[in-house]
Each structure stands twice: as C-alpha cells, then as structure tokens.
Amino acid sequence: MSNRLRGRWVLITGASSGFGAAAARAFGAEGARLLLGARRVDRLERVAAEARAAGAAEAHVHAVDVTSTASVESFFVWARGLLRTGTAEAAPLHVLVNNAGGALGLDPVAQGRDEDWETMLQTNVLGLLRVTRAALPLMLGNPGGLILNVGSVAGHEAYEGGAAYCAAKAGERQITRVLRLELCGTGLRVCSLDPGMAETEFSLVRFKGDAERARKVYEGMQPLTAEDVAEAMVWIASRPPHVCVDELVIKPTDQASVHKVHRRTH
Ligand code: NDP
Ligand code: 8X3
Q: Which keywords label this protein (predicted)?
C-alpha cells in the first residue's frame, strides 16, 4: 500500500458501527488522522481506540446527528478546531466519507410510514448535503482531496418495499454526479461507493431491532463484511490525485442482483 494517507485528515460520518467503524480502523492502519462522528459517542470512543491501536496518527470523536443542521454545524466547529483553520499550522481535510445513513422498514408504499420515509431522506440525502456543505471550505484549495459518498445497489435497482430507500440512494448517486461537475477544476475527487448486501447493523436497524428477521436476510449466502467495504474505501482514497473513481459497485459473489441471491440450503 502507498503511504498517500499517512498523516492525512479523514472525516467519517456514521463511524460508530458497520462500514464507518471498519473505515476508521482501515484508514487508521494507513496512519491517517481521524475525525469520527455519529450519535452514539460511547461506540465512537471504542472505535477510536481500535483505530489508534491499528496505527491512526490521531483519532477524535464528536457527536453528530446529520438530520440536524445545527448539530452538523457544531460538529464542524469542533472539527475546524482540530484542523486549526486560520492558523499557521492549518491542515486541510483530505477525505470526507459520507457514510451515515441506512434504511427503516421494508413496507410497500401502500403501508409506508411517514416517519420512516422522512428519516431515510433526512439521513441519506439531506444529511449528506449538510455535511458536504460544511466540509467543503475545509477541502477546497487542496487538490487530491476526496469526497467519498456511500450509496447502494438500491440506487441502481428497485425492489419491493424499498421505495424511500431506493429513492434516497438514487438521490445520493445524483448528488455525487452533481458534485463531480461542480468541483471539476478544483482538483477534488468525488466518488459514489455502492455496496450490495453487507452484514452490519443495517438490517437490525431496518427491522427495528428484530434480530431474527435481520439474520434471515443473509441466510445461506455469504454477504460482504464491513471490512470488505472499508478496504475499497482505502483503495479509492489512495489512488494518485489525478485518478478519480467516479462510481464503484461492490457486491457479494452470491448476489448477482437485488432479486437474484444464491443461497445454500444445507
Ligand atoms: P450500520 O447501521 O452498521 O451503520 C450506520 C451508521 O450510520 C451508524 O454509525 C449510525 O450511527 C450512523 N447514523 C445513522 N443515522 C445517523 C444520524 N442521523 N446521524 C449520524 N449518524 C447516523 O449500517 P452500515 O454500516 O451497513 O451502513 C453505512 C452506510 O452504508 C449507510 O449509508 C447504508 O445505507 C449504506 N449501505 C449499507 C449496505 C448494507 O448492506 N449494510 C449496503 C449498501 C449501502 P449512530 O446510530 O450512532 O448515529
Ligand atoms: C443496502 C443493500 O439491497 O438492502 O443498501 O438495499 S439493500
């Protein structure tokens, strides 16, 4: 692995579990400096300790709820303090991983719940916009930086019960494309990393704590792990500055499409 990430600042939202936590450990192993956000600070503290043990030059945590502009703004006041903006030692933010998000429910539109729809759009779409708006001043002027948005195969394919989540991840994909156009010429790179089935807390959250229903999602097939996805994130971020991975779809070998998943019966 190159040492392109050593000492670089990497900010990860949704770092308290799943992809975000694995990303903190993986960027940590590259010697990066980490700014980690999510709502569960106790979990973030644990992840930061793991990232430091893996080799992170620094790992700092702060609460953020991406559904709230005020929360995102106060998170960035904290982040700017650590980056020491406006001082002689000011350091740019090199990588922003917009990962916070997820799904709630799998109800058909006819039975859909407003609060689920609103949360999915607030986190996956508006949260990503809020965080990106706040991060951009810390990234502009530093070519080679990367905004890495976590999308999903749900942004490419439709499935029953996925109306709001598929819409949200299609929205993420379009926002990524818009940013790619808006930032062309700044040297900043923008990527949508779009995973298929990965066993994290995603399904537990989607099914509101129903562990048995969550377990069944991956029954008989081998899903991606959070580490598989984090490894892809590090690869994308450590390409040379003139290389932008615009979109990357990563799926389990057992998943050919959202509707075709090979499951072993024994
Ligand atoms: P997890 O549920 O394990 O992680 C989700 C993370 O998002 C948690 O750290 C959670 O932290 C954070 N989060 C959720 N809501 C908010 C909020 N309002 N403000 C701040 N942070 C928030 O799932 P994954 O790791 O799988 O999911 C990460 C991303 O990957 C999501 O965007 C998801 O949609 C996407 N994805 C997941 C796939 C999968 O199969 N697992 C496949 C494709 C994409 P906290 O609760 O502490 O705030
Ligand atoms: C998570 C993968 O297929 O449940 O984004 O939408 S899927």
A: Oxidoreductase
